[in-house]
Design a protein that fits this description.
With 96 residues, the protein is mainly α. 80% of the residues lie in helices and 0% in strands.
Length: 96
């Protein structure tokens, strides 16, 4: 079984740590300081890069870009106060 859930939990926690105790030079802090518009712009860019990698049939690039997209989605979630538990609950509700 995949351990992606644990990894996403760790990522989410690191983003919260950066929000609560900013570090100089932190890209996460840069995004959080710029706010929802910047974060959403990055999500748009990363989504496009995922599509391009898939269309180019480049597996390693696709995996890399999916990881970037997941990171930026987590930054948005923290910024907007959305928890991983809420997303899990929504996904589970769709399995009915």
């Amino acid at each position: 079984m995949s351990e992606i859930g644990a990894m996403l939990d760790q990522l989410y926690d690191v983003i919260i740590e950066r929000r609560d105790a900013p570090r100089d030079g932190s890209y996460t802090n840069y995004l959080l300081e710029r706010g929802v518009d910047k974060i959403c712009k990055k999500i748009g860019e990363e989504s496009t890069e995922v599509v391009i990698a898939a269309k180019n049939d480049n597996r390693s690039e696709l995996v890399y870009e999916i990881a970037d997209l997941l990171y930026h989605l987590n930054v948005l979630m923290v910024n907007q106060g959305v928890t991983l538990d809420e997303v899990e609950k929504e996904l589970r509700s769709r399995r009915k």
